[in-house]
Design goal:
6 helices
């Protein structure tokens, strides 16, 4: 059964789907969990992240914004998704099939560029991602600004 959004208005339909699914899999046992959907992250959070990628790139001068983004996806985004109730299983499966952690750092950066990471983050996860960016790069002496100068 696929991931479903359940609300008061569609719960009876979901119950019927569950009953049908269980009825066609009598010899199996399943676990169900409800996860607060929350809000999708805003475009402004996405724009803010890209502004920071550029600021960090400009600070160092030896890497582009895309390289910074790939590093952030790898260092901050993947761990969040691997701890996510919604995405952990799929992301773990994908990384395992890619032998992601057996590749060199350079290869990992190329692979992570092809993976959907930040767009899968919930609003709360996106906030943590951005906080981790601030803490990490501020500790390295990179001053991250909320608006471009």
């Amino acid at each position: 059964m696929k991931d479903k959004l359940i609300t008061l208005s569609n719960r009876q339909d979901i119950y019927r789907e569950i009953d049908e699914y269980l009825g066609s899999n009598l010899d199996k046992r399943f676990r169900i969990s409800l996860i607060d959907q929350g809000k999708k992250r805003s475009l402004s959070a996405n724009a803010q992240q890209h502004l920071w990628y550029s600021q960090i790139s400009n600070h160092y001068g030896d890497r582009g914004a895309l390289e910074v983004k790939n590093f952030c996806k790898h260092a901050f985004g993947l761990p969040l998704l691997l701890n996510s109730a919604k995405h952990a299983d799929k992301m773990e499966f994908l990384l395992d099939k890619l032998d992601y952690y057996k590749h060199s750092f350079e290869s990992q950066m190329k692979l992570v560029q092809c993976l959907e990471v930040t767009s899968l983050l919930s609003t709360a996860e996106s906030k943590i991602y951005m906080e981790q960016m601030i803490f990490y790069f501020n500790d390295l002496g990179v001053s991250i600004q909320f608006k471009d100068k």
